[in-house]
Amino acid sequence: MVRYGELSTKGKNRKDFIQQLGNNVRHALKDFSSLHILAQHDRLHVKLNGEDSDKVIERLKGVFGIENFSPAIRIEKDIDKAKEFAVSMIQEQFKPGMTFKIKTRRQDKNFPLHTREINDALGGYVLNNVNGIKVKMKNPDIVLEADVRMNGIFLSSSTIEGAGGLPVGTGGKATMMLSGGIDSPVAAYLGMKRGVKIDMIHFYSPPYTSPQALAKTKELTAKIARFSGNVQFIEVPFTEIQEEIKAKVPEGYLMTIQRRMMLKIADVITRQRNCKGIFTGESLGQVASQTLESMMAINDVTNLPVLRPLVSMDKTEIIKIAEKIGTYDLSILPFEDCCTIFTPPAPKTKPDTSKARMFEGNIDVDDLVEKAVKNIKVTNIGPGDEFLNSQEDVFAELL
Ligand code: ATP
Ligand code: MG
């Protein structure tokens, strides 16, 4: 039994939200062929039909829009049956000294007993049949929920926390500038959490960056695809642009101009795909490219919204999320990123926008952007896909 999150407050959009969540849950569970999934107006039900509940529970934990959910048993609308099941469900988790309460909801107004009478009937029976258990109204150890609905009584005795957020797809589509670092995968996760469907854009510079570095970024994408379903991964060749910048732009502005070029290309790709914004993993003050002055000079090339979910987070907070979503161990593999290689020892921390525009005049921006966009490669990546699974890859890079 799945309880909806924030979407219950969304008034007239409610129907769309429920439909999208239903689709997302179906997608996340599509390889369990016996499941029956029913998205109703106040709850969503996943009927197991003999499928492995532990595996289904793990998958559900990654679906945004779910507040929490409870493994539940459906029985016929018979209070005596309910009593027997209540006792056996509580006995499963009872340890001496534990307290409980019954919490009843009655949707079927024709059921002969009222909410309170059901509480009393089930509670009394549990007290008489579970040795040593006590009732406690505030913060009991076990809450047994009885939900009397049209199609039966649902009993559940534990609640599992969901991923929260809004169903992916209800917030439209955006792109994400994804590197192989710690931050951008976390930012992508947070964007998805607010309901946005995200396509990844990754700039790579062979031979300065290795095939392993590219594989690592794809594998990071596969990790976060767990939260959104399949993700389009767009590789942008960036070598020529970086070489051109290196040759023609003063050292202090190398980083700024590289970032401007990246964002300009991202702008074109984002519009082509009918996406409505660009996410990045930037956080204020973290490195030279992430000062307000620098953001201003870089942001100058686009008027799409640039969304920075990590803007005010500390590195330690970001790492915590990276560990939680399972991207941290991959992110810290020491493969060179295209930016690190071309980063000068002392980039300007406060670049000037008009100077940036002027130095950019040294290179043929339009031609370079057009060529890069023409040569993108798109891969469709699913949850759990592997691109970097052998130890050999890792060692080859490190040697
Ligand atoms: P991250 O951990 O996400 O790599 P970072 O702390 O290394 O971030 P920067 O290198 O300054 O910070 O990158 C800032 C942001 O620019 C990244 O979060 C990402 O959104 C984008 N970015 C950097 N490198 C790339 C790349 N090769 N391809 C796509 N986007 C990139
Ligand atoms: Mg980085």
UniProtKB/TrEMBL annotation:
Gene3D superfamilies: 3.30.2130.30, HUPs. Belongs to the ThiI family. Signal peptide: none annotated. It is found in: Cytoplasm. It comes from Apilactobacillus ozensis DSM 23829 = JCM 17196. Pathway: Cofactor biosynthesis; thiamine diphosphate biosynthesis. It comes from the Bacteria. Its EC number is 2.8.1.4. ATP binds at M177, L178, H202, F203, R259, G281, Q290. One of its GO terms (biological process) is thiazole biosynthetic process. NCBIfam families: tRNA uracil 4-sulfurtransferase ThiI. This is Probable tRNA sulfurtransferase. It catalyses: [ThiI sulfur-carrier protein]-S-sulfanyl-L-cysteine + a uridine in tRNA + 2 reduced [2Fe-2S]-[ferredoxin] + ATP + H(+) = [ThiI sulfur-carrier protein]-L-cysteine + a 4-thiouridine in tRNA + 2 oxidized [2Fe-2S]-[ferredoxin] + AMP + diphosphate; [ThiS sulfur-carrier protein]-C-terminal Gly-Gly-AMP + S-sulfanyl-L-cysteinyl-[cysteine desulfurase] + AH2 = [ThiS sulfur-carrier protein]-C-terminal-Gly-aminoethanethioate + L-cysteinyl-[cysteine desulfurase] + A + AMP + 2 H(+). Catalyzes the ATP-dependent transfer of a sulfur to tRNA to produce 4-thiouridine in position 8 of tRNAs, which functions as a near-UV photosensor. Also catalyzes the transfer of sulfur to the sulfur carrier protein ThiS, forming ThiS-thiocarboxylate. This is a step in the synthesis of thiazole, in the thiamine biosynthesis pathway. The sulfur is donated as persulfide by IscS. One of its GO terms (cellular component) is cytosol. The gene is thiI. GO terms for molecular function: ATP binding; CCA tRNA nucleotidyltransferase activity; kinase activity; tRNA binding; tRNA-uracil-4 sulfurtransferase activity. Keywords: ATP-binding, Cytoplasm, Kinase, Nucleotide-binding, RNA-binding, Thiamine biosynthesis, Transferase, tRNA-binding. Its main location: cytoplasm. Residues 54-159 form the THUMP domain.
